[in-house]
Amino acid sequence: MSLLLCRLEPVQHPYYVEVLGIHIYSSQELCYIIYNNPLLVMEDFLDTPLITFIREELDMEPLARKLQSLADQKNNTDAMLLLILSECDYYTESEINRFKQTLAAYHKYHPAEYLKAVADALFQKKQYGKAIVRYQKILEIPKDKVVDDEFLAKVYHNLGAVYAQMFQYEKAFRALDQSYVLNKNPDTLKRIYFLTVFEPALAVRERYQSLFTPQAKEKWEEELSLARQNAMAAKEVAALRELFKKDPVKRMKGAGEMINQWKQEYRGMI
């Protein structure tokens, strides 16, 4: 992206982007969110509260008026998004044209492909609850040339991965089981094995036990060991280590703050 001058906007009430679980404090941040999350702003993003935020907090009355006019005409989401990018002078003309092409490409997707792309984007943003809703909607779509066994296997696979991230291992297993039945993907089998490690009480069918060969388990255990080492080096773990070096009073206070932060993050995920 080119070097551009930024506006100074004394925002009193930031705008909360529910689909991403973050607050916006400036027009630059608004443009950045739009440009880098096209799939997540093509639906239910451009609403009256956002237009009000642009008018009252960003003090961009002309832009808000144009957006309201487009909103009144219905089905003008693309035009509204492009208008914001153009009026805020944050991205260059060539960058905005590329964004326009990206929107056009998504509009050509099969409904199931589009839903999966949105769900995958939400998964990447750790918006797990919202991702699950989209994946489940895909499973309601009748099978056709696009929604075949291979496609559904990917949906079930990702659904299982989301549940695993939320520590809902039984649901994760059921989804991964469906995925493996459809396409026998070795990566799915590996993830099912990982679930048995994370949750030993998980009732895994006997046929999987026979598929967990000694050679495969040795390889997977090496992957798990490396993952554990990387986890121990994570900044969250480092923060915990520093916390336990403090005196009891500061330790309890820090632990409370950390737990509250985790609670907020988890609520955002669901």
UniProtKB/TrEMBL annotation:
Which InterPro entries is this protein grouped with?
TPR-like_helical_dom_sf, TPR_rpt
N-terminal signal peptide: none
Q: Where are the TPR repeats?
A: 153-186
Identify the Gene3D superfamilies for this entry.
Tetratricopeptide repeat domain
| UniProt keyword annotations, A-Z | TPR repeat
Q: Which Pfam families match?
A: TPR_12 (PF13424)
Q: Which domain of life is it from?
A: Bacteria
Q: What is this protein called?
A: Tetratricopeptide repeat protein
